[in-house]
Amino acid sequence: MQVAKQHGRNRRNWGLLQVIPTLKTARAFLPEFIARLTVRRESGPIDSLPGLHRFVSTRAAFIAQKTLYGYLKTRMGTRYPSMFEDDVFVRSINIAKLHVFAACLSDLAIFAVGRALGELPGEQGTDDALRRRLALSCFEKGLADNAEEAAGVPDFSPAEAVAAFQRRLAFWDWHEGPEGADIFAESPAALVRWAPIAPELKKYDEEIVRNSVKFAWREIRNQFDKRIDAAALAAAVREEARAQPGTAPDPLAGP
Question: Could you state, in order of their start, the residue ranges of all structural domains in the chain?
Answer without folding.
Answer: 4-253
